[in-house]
Amino acid sequence: MESASDGPGGMSLIVKTVSRLVASFILLFGLYIVVYGHLTPGGGFAGGVIMASSFVLMLLAFGGAFVASFVSQRAPALWDCLGALAFLLVAVSGYFGGAFFRNLFAKGEPFHLLSAGTIPLSNIAIGVKVAASLFGVYLALAAFRLTQVPKER
Amino acid sequence: MGLQALPYLMAMLLFVIGVYAIVAKKNIIKVIIGLMITEYAINLFLVLVGYRVNGIAPILTPDLAQAEFARRTVDPIPQALVLTSIVIGLGLLALMVAIAIRLYEKYGTFDTTEIKHLRG
Amino acid sequence: MVNLLPLFVVIPLAVAFGLPLLEKLHSPERTSEVVAVAATGALCAGALLLLNSGAGTYWVGGWAPTVAIGISLVADGLAKLLLCLVSLVSLAAAVFAVSYMERYTSRPLFYALFFLMVAGMNGVVLAGDLFNLYVFMEVAAIASYALVAFGCGRDELEASLKYLVVSALASTLILFGIGIVYSLTGTLNMAQVGARAPALHANPAVTLAAAFFLMGFGLKTAMVPFHAWLPDAHPSAPAPISALLSGVYIKACGAYVLLRLVFSVLGASPLVAHALIVLGAASMLVGVLLAVGQWDLKRLLAYSSISQMGYVVLAVGVGAEVLARGGPKAVASLAVFGGLFHLVNHATFKSLLFLCSGSIEYATGTRQLRELGGLSRTLPLTSGCCRIGALSIAGVPPFNGFWSKLIIVIAVVQAGHWALGALCVLVSFLTLLTYVKVQRYALQGPAPAALARAREAPWPMALALVVLAIACVGGGLLLPLYQGALVQPARDVVLDGLRYAQWALGGQG
User: I want to staple A30 with a disulfide (CB 3.0 to 4.6 A). Which of A50, A146, C10, C271 is the partner?
Assistant: First the structure.
């Protein structure tokens, strides 16, 4: 992203340098909140928001035009739908265990990372969905100015 | 009335402030902020419903027996309600801001007294 | 069959999130429309199958209520009635939208929002506990705000913002009421609240919660004085969405929840019954008086929606009042039956009228009555269906509106409210006047030169119109055949009131 240092939009050089260093840690922290959602507070939604905020940080620091040049408008919407469908898949897979949304995977021992059956899967699906959709909302409002108008009726 | 009612009164005061902002302000952004204030006031009210004096947070840790946990924890159900309500409020806020931006493109202003095309 | 209840929510959600994916995978041109019609058809078939199988409660995740705090989906008579209505009207709207939405861009997004709204309404109708009711209601509401603004013109955006602010405030009040009910009873499951409700009925907090629910759901049902959002929002939406909004949304997220809360959860008290009667009477009168003066066709239909929903709320309120004061059960039964039957009829004829107005707008480009004329010659099918819809809503025999209004008037008079009965008849005359105005200006008279090139609607739109028109005619004449399966179980649920609690918990708990 060397060309971003002199590009238009975005903020000053200090902000850009620090954001470049910090954004991946924020993303990692959000991922941690999502994956440990069945053990500590947080879970899918809170972790997803933190992940989205790391993307939004890059957007704010480097300017909308720059981010729009390498993120297509379709990608967030695609991941949004995939996350939602994954969640529905987890819910419907409960039918194999007897009831809708039943927790049918091995429960494991409490307080371990690999435990609680389908709950971590639901958390991850929701985390992906929320991160993608919040970033998509931010892109739509700030980076891509939607210029579609309805045809004449 | 008593001192236990004081937090609920504060939540109600916040709600009334939000309603005042919706009703009396002319700028769409201020109306949106007022609506979000009412939402947060209701979330506060719900959390207060589940409060237990000297309670602990509803997180089960390995060193806590289940019976003692159930005896001392604050009610976790309102907290689940509040989480969901916050998400709904977020979706609503995103939609409201998007509509407000589009309105600005059409009318050129955020002033509600000028956005009164529909009448009757 | 009860085991498949969650599918009524899962299928629309899956379609809503799958359609943008399909669009990104560069699928053939009409995929969204085909998938939409297929999905709504499947939901309709499912609802009809559910009607014939037994009623029941489904506990999600297999969490029985004695062991854990579970989420339940309840399909009793009232829920099945609303489910059938939602499925039928959404099928008609989806078929209509196949050609109507050609004039709009972003059609996969339209269908995604459409199915989010259907998923939300199905969830509201099937929900067995208060909080899931609220969540699904919000899902449907947010989808409807976006759909009202779909055209992205000045009027649509303004209408959507007004609708959004007012409706979000109502949702906040409803959440308030839910919080109060939870703090009083310690449970969110509607059946468990109903079981603990009789012990609480002297508590003033219950009255406060009931007041919040009446305000919030009165606003969702567009009762006067909470009606101001409807005449802006419903005309601005695209025609299939107007049909869905006026036809089922204000019933599923408004009248149904009012019925459920007033009868099965909190119990019918005299205060709430009188409040319902006042709301219903005011809506009837104000709605029709404002409708007569309108020159915009869809705005006129929206005001008349307010008036007809007033009939439903009035009839149900009279039934509640008779029950609360210990009057003859037959009178209450008749009143509630009339209200529910009018709910069914209003769904069919109001969605038919909105789809007709959409067809008129598609052909002529305008919805102002002063600019229309002579459509009975240029658009014969549309104007025939419009006539059927207008005669139904005005209460002309043998169409379905006549029978439901007759039952309501008889029940109200038998309950002793002579003035209300006279009001019902007066409002019926004024409704007839409104629709005679529509016929005079839109369908008859000379055709203006600007409309000379108007052609009849394409076959998907015509198909939807004809199906709903047949439902209007058949709804009246075939009443003895279907009322036992469709309307009577719903009426029995409403009259049973708090016995819902034992039934829902003891059924499969």
Answer: A50
Looking at residue A148, its pLDDT comes to: 39
Q: What is the ipTM of this complex?
A: 0.93
Two structure tokens written together for C192? 């468990």
CA C185 to chain centre: 30
Residue A8: band (very low, low, confident or very high) from pLDDT cuts 50, 70, 90: low
Contact C164 B102 (CB under 8 A): no
Quote the minimal CA–CA distance from B3 to chain A in Å.
30
Q: Which residues of A touch C (CB under 8 A)?
A: 74, 77-78, 80-82, 84-85, 88, 91-92, 94, 97-103, 148-151, 153
Q: Are A137 and B98 a contacting pair at CB < 8 A?
A: yes
- Of the pLDDT bands very low, low, confident and very high (cuts 50, 70, 90), residue A145 is low
Could you give the CA distance from residue C264 to residue C257 in angstroms, rounded to a whole number?
10
pLDDT digits (tens, 9 = 90+) for A66-96: 777 777 778 888 999 999 999 999 888 887 7
Q: Do A88 and C17 touch (CB under 8 A)?
A: yes
Is A153 part of any domain? no
Nearest to A102 among C62, C104, C105 (CB): C62
Domain of B103?
Answer: 3-107
Q: What is the pLDDT of residues C446-468, one digit of tens each?
A: 777 777 667 777 888 888 888 88
Q: Is residue B73 part of a domain?
A: yes
C337: CB partners within 8 A, 6+ apart: C407, C411, C487, C488, C491
pLDDT over 50 at A149, yes or no: no
Domain that holds residue A57: 2-143
**Cβ contact A41–B83 (<8 Å):** no
Cβ distance of C6 and A84 shorter than 8 Å: no
CB-based burial label for C204 (10 Å; 0-12, 13-18, 19+): exposed
Residue B64 falls within a domain, yes or no? yes
CB–CB of A140 and B101 under 8 A? no
C453 interfaces chain A, CB cutoff of 8 Å: no
Of chain C, the end-to-end C-alpha distance in Å amounts to: 16
Torsions phi, psi of A43, nearest 5? 90, -160
Distance between CA atoms of C91 and C117, rounded to whole angstroms? 13
Which residues in chain C touch residue B78, judged by CB atoms under 8 angstroms apart? 179, 182
Which of A74, A97, A151 lies at the smallest CB-CB distance from C105? A151
More confident of the two residues C484 and C113: C113
pLDDT at B82 (0 to 100): 93
Q: Which two tokens mark B57?
A: 């947070």
Residue B119 resides in a domain: no
C295 phi and psi angles, rounded to 5 deg: -115, -10
- Domain total in chain B: 1
Q: How many separate domains does chain A show?
A: 1
Residue B19 lies in a domain: yes
Look up the CATH number of the domain holding residue B59: 1.10.287.3510
